[in-house]
Amino acid sequence: MLKEVVSGAYERFGTLGREIGAAGINDTDEIASQKFVARIGELVRDLEIPTLEEYGVSRKEFFSVIDKMSTDAMDSGSPQNTMKEIDIEDVKEIYRRLW
């Protein structure tokens, strides 16, 4: 999921990868970005963060409201806080990949 956000913003995410110690100074921005994403994945596993399904969210209901959630997200301005410009189709894809 994070890979879509990282693509096109390698410099910024590369810096994050180096800052958290996931990547070295000699890693390219793209490699450092990949290491950052991998470290976030490790953190999610270490913290045992449940999936939507484990929380009891219905897949059918979740997918039926993706359009509304995406519109609401865009209207809230939250996507503009990302490191990369994204549009409503990007937000929909992020929601789809949450499952």
Topology:
Layout: H1 2-6, H2 10-19, H3 29-46, H4 59-64, H5 66-76, H6 88-98
Can you put this structure into words, describing what you see?
With 99 residues, the chain is mainly α. The protein has two domains: 45 residues; 40 residues, no CATH class. The protein is built from six helices and no strands. Helix 2 packs across helix 3 and helix 5 crosses helix 6. It is flat.
Descriptive terms for the model:
single chain, 99 residues, mainly alpha, flat, 0% strand, 2 domains
Give a short synopsis of this structure.
The chain contains 6 helices and no strands. With 99 residues, the chain is an all-alpha fold. The chain has 2 domains: 45 residues; 40 residues, no CATH class.
Q: Please, how many domains?
A: 2
Q: Mean pLDDT across all residues, rounded?
A: 90
Order of helices and strands: HHHHHH
Quaternary structure of the protein: single chain
Instruction: Kindly state the number of beta strands.
Output: 0
Radius of gyration, in angstroms, nearest whole number = 15 Å
Distance between the termini: 10 Å
Helix content: 55-70%
Structural class: mainly alpha
Low-confidence stretches: none
